[in-house]
User: Fold this.
Amino acid sequence: MSTLAPVSAVPGTSRLQARRGVGGRFGDLVLIGLTGAAAFGSVVLVGTIVWKVLRLSGDSFARFGFSFVTAREWDPVKHVFGALPFIYGTLVSSFVALVIATPLAIGIGLYLSELAPRGVRGIVGSLVELLAAIPSVVLGLWGILVLAPFVAHHVEPKLHSAFGFIPLFGDPQQTGQGLFTAALILTIMIVPIVASISRELFLGVPRELEEGALALGTTRWEMVRGVILPATRSGIAAALILGLGRALGEAIAVTQVIGGGTRIGSSLFPPADTLASKLASSYQGANPGLEISSLLYLAAILLVIGLGANLLAQVVVRRFDPLRGART
Assistant:
């Protein structure tokens, strides 16, 4: 005669729901309310900021329209304002900083996660993260006192002598303050962010995959190229966009080293300006009326660029996410 399997002593779903007290239901309601309020509050905050900026920039938009984006002159005396030099400075400085920072940050992340001795990882990792904690104004002062003279006397002349036939490295300056120096400052700000995120991503790759690749006879570089980087490419892309957002919105440090010019050219060395640095340097002394409204128009353009960067981040992450098919 067969023996019947014992019935599980775990109560069914209906019995669990019956035993659930008022406190449990109240906790669910509180959790839903708090999380919903936080999400809705963030939407309201962003909407309020956008509405205020757009409303205060209305006079400039009514005067110049979309031609403000392509106009190159900024003359408060003649009441003529244009945003193109500042858009150019913002995009070029951020892009150059991202190009320089990407291999440095990924290399630091790989060294700390795969190559560094255990005793070195904590020290170097802490120093890299400490770099992100330096205030912008202090970094800008260091840029004025140390980086700008070094760039003027050593970096720019050597780049010009070696690559002067390329328009990017023409027209060297004597002060060291310009678009290239601002890009270097932004690079210092981007590197710790991307490096820290990349290190955590690399540490999250299953050790079995790395050891299996090495057991098959691959070199460490082949293992990094074939296992670690493909497994973390969506996270790295998101980290790079996060660093780009940091560069696009930086104001104080860039204002101190960029020189404040409105020239648009192919060279990286002459003084320039960005949307954020123009706002930081000119808003307090601006004349009420059209100039203030034009500065707020610059802020609105910066908001649009930031929104575009976030949308690009979403597209890139979804494009390179290996699990996107499993989630749909």
User: Anything to note?
Assistant: The two ends are 50 Å apart (CA to CA). The mean pLDDT is 84.
